[in-house]
Design brief:
384 residues, mainly alpha, single chain
Length: 384
């Protein structure tokens, strides 16, 4: 065997010889295992020591930035805070939002409706105990209007079941709706609360108190102001044409319900505006810039709700609604200031409002004590 064959045998794999340099290192030309056609000039001499070639090293990975920091040129945003919930625009840690499936929403809606109905049922039982007093309270505007027009101050029963249906069923239900309105509004808030951020759920108590207060205030405004003037106008239309009014208790009570509930719902306008601002659907600047369209819509709604076609009663409805519209804008403005960590100048405002209230109180006191005027539970509330 010549020297070249010995070199081939020494470089062959599996024979215990030293592997060739071309097999160990990744070169431009590769040879299959056991190939005998390796050139002599690529085979190492027998006496050369074995050389081990280390594999190519990979670049070291860049260190991962700590949570909440963006270091090392990484564009990975920080993880959301607040227990894994979605973050809001403020980026604070109090932004946890509950998540519910569609079936869970339906189950929650069913539960809230049942609880609302139970609250109405309890208020109905309480109201039916005082039915006589309630009916006397409800018919007071009719008796006052008929007396002012020199008619007999009584209502008429046409069908045998009419008095029972109105006095003992419909009237306690209407009273129960007003009495249980805080509980119903709380159930409404509890249903929509899972879709709000945790810090936005703090508005639960103000929402319930303001909503129920405005609803009841709207009913009282309709009872003491709007309904009385509207009823007097309607009953006096045919007075000079030899027409004697005969008002049935059903027709009277239906008109009473439409006016009181309609005005009570209209008085919820500030709460609706505040809620839309809370959800970022509208903004105070947007409402101010488009207030002329809002006032037009308010007058249209007032024309629909008003039981009479005269301008005076229309203004009785439209003026408070316009005032409530701007009250809602002011409440939304306070919310925006709170989001931007700013404060409303209450001190400067109170230095103007308090002297005005003191002046009005002084005028009212002088009108009662010096000029013999007295307060009455209907418009204009101050008569001689």
């Amino acid at each position: 065997m010549n020297s070249s064959e010995e070199q081939k045998g020494a470089g062959a794999p599996g024979t215990g010889g030293t592997p060739a340099a071309g097999d160990a290192a990744a070169g431009p030309q590769q040879f299959q295992e056991g190939d005998s056609s390796v050139p002599d000039n690529l085979a190492p001499p027998p006496s050369s020591p074995s050389v081990s070639v280390a594999p190519a090293s990979l670049p070291a990975p860049s260190p991962r930035p700590a949570p909440g920091k963006t270091g090392g040129g990484s564009n990975t945003p920080p993880p959301p805070s607040g227990g894994g919930g979605d973050g809001d625009d403020d980026g604070d840690g109090d932004s946890y939002m509950l998540r519910m499936s569609f079936l869970e929403h339906l189950e929650e809606l069913r539960s809230r409706i049942i609880r609302s109905l139970l609250g109405v049922a309890v208020a109905f039982v309480v109201s039916i105990i005082f039915t006589d007093k309630l009916w006397e309270f409800v018919t007071a505007p009719a008796r006052a209007a008929l007396t002012a027009l020199h008619y007999t101050p009584t209502l008429v029963q046409i069908t045998p079941m009419e008095a029972f249906n109105v006095i003992w069923v419909k009237l306690p239900i209407l009273c129960a709706v007003f009495l249980s309105s805080p509980w119903i509004l709380y159930q409404v808030w509890a249903f929509i609360a899972p879709g709000l951020y945790r810090r936005e759920r703090r508005w639960a108590a103000p929402f319930v108190i303001c909503s129920a207060g405005l609803f009841i205030s709207g009913g009282l405004f309709a009872y003491f102001v709007a309904f009385r003037f509207g009823l007097t106008f309607l009953l006096g239309i045919g007075r000079g044409n030899y027409v004697t009014p005969m008002v049935s208790i059903t027709e009277y009570f239906d008109l009473f319900v439409n006016v009181t509930l309609g005005v009570g719902l209209v008085f919820e306008l500030p709460v609706i505006i505040f809620f839309l601002t809370l959800l970022r659907i509208v903004s105070p600047s947007f409402l101010i810039n488009h207030s002329r369209y809002a006032i037009l819509v308010i007058f249209i709604i007032a024309a629909i709700v008003t039981p009479t076609p005269d301008v005076f009663n229309l203004m009785l409805f439209a003026a408070p609604m316009c005032l409530l519209f701007y009250v809602g804008i002011f409440a939304g403005y306070l919310l925006v200031l709170n989001r931007e960590n700013r404060r409303f100048p209450w001190k400067k405002t109170m230095t103007i409002v308090i002297p005005v209230l003191i002046l009005l109180g002084t005028v009212l006191y002088l009108a009662i004590t010096k000029f013999g005027m007295k307060l009455v539970p209907h418009w204009p509330f101050l008569i001689r």
